[in-house]
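Long-time lurker. I teach an intro course on protein structure, and each term I like to show students one example going from raw sequence to a predicted 3D structure in token notation. This year I'd like something fresh instead of my usual example. Would anyone be willing to generate the tokens for the chain below so I can use it in lecture? Attribution to the forum is fine with me.
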Amino acid sequence: MWWENEFLKVRHNELHIDGQPATSLAERFGTPLLVYSRKRILANYQRLEHAFAGLGAKELRICYAMKANPHPEILKLLRRRGAWIDAVSPGEVEAARRAGFPSHRILFTGTSLSHEDIRRVFEVDGVTVTIDALEQLELMGEVRERFCPKKRLNVAVRWNPGLGRGFNPAVVTAGKRAPNGTPIKFGVEEKRVVATFRKAISLGFHPVGLHQHLGSGWVERDYPVVRKAVEKMVRVALRLERAGYGLKWLDFGGGFGPRYKQDQRLFPLERYATVICRLVTESRLSIQAVAVEPGKFLVADAGVLLLRVEYLKESYGQLFACVNGGTFTSLPRLVIYAQAHHEIVNSSKVRGRKRPITVAGNLCETGDVFAKQRPLPLPRRGDILAVLCAGAYGRSMASTFNLRDMPREIVL
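-- Reply from a regular --
Happy to contribute to a lecture. Here you go:
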């Protein structure tokens, strides 16, 4: 099958997860159940390291975008492997500290920050705070003056390069407007970047980096725009350096993702990394490190959601597999993003004659379906369906809608 890897294998027409039958895991731990693989996460991490080997003496900082999946065991695994953290809230900063991350390996990049948000982050010695707006500095300055006037506080500037890409308008994070017309709220526009550095210094902060993030879920067709944004980033960094604002690192953000469906043309990660390495080297920038912020790239295809079929239903000529979990409570991206797709496998009978099946969740909401008229081997009552690529933005976005429980999680 196209989705098989070291994590997922088909043996005797049954799905195995890290060598264990999916049906056995479901019986042992119950369903709904999210299963994550340490081996697959580390394999994805290693692929990133290899892609950026061309940086030479410069350090690669792989800043895990914790919002994808903040499971404590995943955080500890990545911390031991040498990862940094991309945190977007004080709660994520605190979760990273509980998982053992040293504060100097946490980059905090929030938006629409409150006085309380800033105070909580400033209390953690060593965290670098990314400035999302020139106007945000007034509030940051007030908090610094009141709570920690003598503390050295490193900051970075998140700029908006005027170019954004993403698989859905809601996840495009740069440019003037998203494809659906929504104004982009993130980052400092190019003409205000120098002024933001200047003001940060005047308020006693220490700018150390430049950051950008274009959006999420890039595929092959996004590469030309992404490459152009990389070129712009390097040019702006050179201008800052020549103006006397020394940078220690550039953060190119995240956006590259896993393969969610068979016909998806993957974003060329290795090409992207090679361009960054070459442009940074040729520019002769004095930076010490390059950072990227993978989230779903590391954990999405390392996770599977297991659901039990309670019964089959026929209505107006349509077949429904009615399962014991809901999208809102386990994998909300399916109902949040129209373009979201997750492959579904019958763990007990991976191959077989297929019928169009709608996999229906147990919530009181018409949109609570995991797949619509998806060709699947006809399931039976008690079969275990596996929703693949469920390791990112599943449990982290889940709710208790209808007062239903969220799924249990295990890490193999």
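Some talking points for your students: DSSP finds twelve helices and 20 strands in the chain. The first helix runs from residue 22 to 29.
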